[in-house]
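Hi C.,

You asked whether I'd gotten around to modeling the 112-residue construct. I have! Everything is below, sequence then structure, no commentary in between.
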Amino acid sequence: MIKGDNIYFGHGTIAVGADAYCLTLSTIRPPQEVGSSLEGVEVEYLEKISIHMEYNDCIVLQKLLSNVSDQNNIVKFKDYVFNFEEFNSKSVDVLNKHIKDILNLYYMCMAA
């Protein structure tokens, strides 16, 4: 769920997407299994945050996420607090997958 600048992971209430150099986080209802695809699933999208991601932002967020654990469950990134108090490694995996998608766009642009 999203409350202001706080994003709460591990409950299956956040949809994560990436496109055009943005990481998109949306609150969804009803909750889904953490790490599952939403393709073909009927959910209601509520609050939405789009975070513009420069290449270096992607690298920084990957590094911050690599340190997330039960004991280290708060990540401050840009103007947001990523809260993993209900730690589920699949939440981190989903975020990393989409960060890699954004990085691949940068790599393609560099190779053009």
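If it helps when you're writing up: The first helix runs from residue 55 to 66.

Thanks,
B.
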